[in-house]
Amino acid sequence: MRYSVASESLTIERLETEVRKIGGREIRKASLMGQLFCELEISQKDALSRVPGIKVREIKSFKAEQPVTAQAPAAPLTLDIPDIFAGLRNYFSPPLTGTGLTMAVLDTGIRKTHEALQGKVVYEANLSGAPTCEDLFDHGTSTAYEVADLVAPGAKLMNVKVINDEGAGSEETVVLGIDEVCSLARKARESSYLPTDNLYPNAMNLSLGSPDDGDPDNPVRAASRKAIQDFDIDVIAAAGNGGPSLSTITIPACDPEVIAVGAIEKEALTIWERSSHGPTLEGNTKPDFVFWGTNIKMASAAGDSKYVIKSGTSFSAPLLSGLTGLIWETGRRAQGEWWTFRWKELSTFAPYFCLKSEDAPVRKDNAWGYGLPAMDLMLRETGEAPSPGQQVMQATSSMMGLSMLGLMMVGMTRAM
């Protein structure tokens, strides 16, 4: 049986030594995450668990969900998402593109030859166990399209395949994928790349999940936190499709440090009935934000000019991921190239720039989170150039810039 092995006190080299000592086999290491994976007999697992400081867990499965897929919508659609994002981008001069953002898509692979994605995949890695990085499950191509065509056409993509051609993966494959992205971020830092360099990953989109186990030391949660805290990488994850039942937010979206995205209906400002709800098993309020998640036309891996209409929180998360690029670009234009953007930092002020239905709580709740980001307001505010005096103050830290943004939003109504 396959297990994950981790320790807060022992090095990865010491962990490997202990595993080999008791006869562990087929070892794979996620060195930056401080975790390894191996085959153990029950007796070996028990022996390893008795070593002080070592935690041994049976690995669990992960999957990419596609709850609704159709060739055409059942009814005329009232909201044209491509036009909305085109309008947002074209409001600025020159138009926004999301340039500078490199999004690591941990998914089922990407059909990089698709007409909407040509030239956008700058790196590929296959940790899934499938033969190639190709997207034969037809999921990762769709999420990648939303990030780097529908929302931010100037963004670049890293194709990190962690889910196989049947839509299945494991904690092992996902952690190894996160480790791969963090390795690239470390290399970019050591090479003195600018954060806007194509090979400097800024964020990860994880449109995948596994049932919440209430364990903060879950391997994928631990790896996600390490990516955020040690490598300054935003981790954005689909909330899951287990609604309307409560406490159905999946891993890693259930982690407090991860940005969880639920789904609202495309045709109305209402929660999609299958969007997962909080609270988490630890009692945390989730999701963090919601985005459109039904009847969205997106690229299909079935062919280089094929498109499909899908629904699910898997396709809400990449809309928020792509928006990262637009907000970051406007901020850099106004504040300077040093300016950085992280959703977690900005969430303190989220009630002032998010929309909800009139009957939803103003505070963060377990269906809406903070709500749907008011994109035009956010882009206008981050695009406001500061005065010379402000520039001196803001140069002390990027957090100062975010705080001033939040203060500017206080007093603005949610109707904006």
Tell me about this structure.
- The chain is globular and about 60 Å long.
- α6 links the parallel β11 (203-206) and β12 (234-238).
- It starts with a strand and ends in a 7-residue tail after the last helix.
- It is an alpha/beta fold.
- The protein has two domains: 2-59, 2-Layer Sandwich (Alpha-Beta Plaits); 62-347, Peptidase S8/S53 domain (Rossmann fold).
- The protein has a seven-stranded parallel sheet with strand order 8-9-7-11-12-13-14, with helices on both faces. A four-stranded antiparallel sheet has the order 2-3-1-4, with helices on both faces. Strands 6-16-15 form a three-stranded antiparallel sheet.
- The model is unreliable at 71-77 and 386-416 (pLDDT under 50).
- α4 (140-151) runs parallel beside α7 (317-335), α5 runs parallel beside α6 (219-231) and α7 (317-335) packs parallel to α9 (375-382).
- It is built from eleven helices and 18 strands.
- It has helices spanning 12-21, 42-49, 81-90, 140-151, 171-190, 219-231, 317-335, 343-346, 375-382, 388-394, 398-409, and strands spanning 2-7, 25-30, 35-39, 54-58, 61-63, 68-70, 102-107, 121-126, 156-161, 168-170, 203-206, 234-238, 259-264, 289-292, 296-299, 307-311, 354-355, 372-373.
